[in-house]
Amino acid sequence: MNELQGAGVALVTPFNADGTVDYDTLGRLIDYQIEGGMDYLVSLGTTGETATLSAAERKQVWAFTSKHVNKRVPLVAGIGGNHTQEIVEQIKAFDVLDYVAILSVSPYYNKPTQEGIYQHYKAIAEASKLPIILYNVPGRTGSNILPATTIRLAKDFKNIVATKEASGSFAQFSEILRDKPEDFLLISGDDPITLPMMAMGAAGIISVVANAYPNKVSALSHLCQEGNFTEARSIHLELLKAIDLCFIEGNPAGVKYIMKQKGLGEDHLRLPLVPVGKATQDAINAEIQLLG
C-alpha cells in the first residue's frame, strides 16, 4: 500500500452556523491539504465528527470529497463503530469511488476481549472490497488492541494492510514492527510521537494538526522518510505546543479554532462537542503568532 506511506490527514468536517455541512469550506480545505504536500486524505475519520453525521450526510461527504479531489491524491474512508453488523452493512453498501482503503476504529465502549476484537475485524475484512486499516486508540475506545491481535489479523487477512496506532506504547509499537508481515504498515495515529515512531520504522502519520499546518506535517514526515531526523526534529519541536493545544479541550475543537484563526473556516461543532474556552483561545492565538 504505497498510497499509505508518508503524511495523511484526518480531515475535519466544516459546519455552517446552522449545523449543516459547509461544502465550500470543505473544498477549500481539501485544496489546502493537497497544496501543502499531504500524501493522502482520510475522509470522516473520528476527527471528522463522524458519529454525529447521518448516513445520508456521510454518503454526501464521501462523494463530494472524491469528486473534489479528482484523483489528485489517494483517499481513505473512515467507517468504524461498536456495532459490528451495522459496520459490515455500511462497508458492503459503500461506493468505493476513488477510495483506496477503509480506516476502521476498534469498537468503543463495549470493551470487547481480544477475541471479540479479532472477530469484529474478521467480519469487516470478509465484507470489504477495499483494504482495511486498523485503528487502535485506547484513550477513546476503552480497550487496547494488543500486538498479538494486530499480528494475528495481519497474517490471517491479506486485506488488513496497516494499523493506525495511538496507544502511545513504544513497547507495543516495537512488538508490531518485530512480528508483522513485511508489507504490513505501522502508521502513527498520534501527532506528538510521529518522529520517534518513524525513526523506529513506522510508515508515516494520519495527522490532526495537519488540518491547520499541512506543509509542516508533510515536511516532517518526508524528512523522516529520507532519514533526515535532524531537520525533522526542528519541525517536531516547533509543532509540539500547537499539537497540545489541539487536544487540550478535545478533538477537533482545538484544531478547528486554530483553523479559524488562520482563515481556514469557522469553529462550529456538533454537540456534544463545543468550541474551546477563552483561556485556550488566548493560548492558541499566542502560539499562532509564534508559528507564523
From TrEMBL:
It comes from the Bacteria. Pathway: Amino-acid biosynthesis; L-lysine biosynthesis via DAP pathway; (S)-tetrahydrodipicolinate from L-aspartate: step 3/4. Pfam families: DHDPS (PF00701). Its EC number is 4.3.3.7. SUPFAM superfamilies: Aldolase. The record marks 46, 109 as: Part of a proton relay during catalysis. GO terms for cellular component: cytosol. The active site is at 135 (proton donor/acceptor), 164 (schiff-base intermediate with substrate). It is found in: Cytoplasm. One of its GO terms (molecular function) is 4-hydroxy-tetrahydrodipicolinate synthase activity. GO terms for biological process: diaminopimelate biosynthetic process; lysine biosynthetic process via diaminopimelate. Homotetramer; dimer of dimers. Catalyzes the condensation of (S)-aspartate-beta-semialdehyde [(S)-ASA] and pyruvate to 4-hydroxy-tetrahydrodipicolinate (HTPA). Belongs to the DapA family. This is 4-hydroxy-tetrahydrodipicolinate synthase.
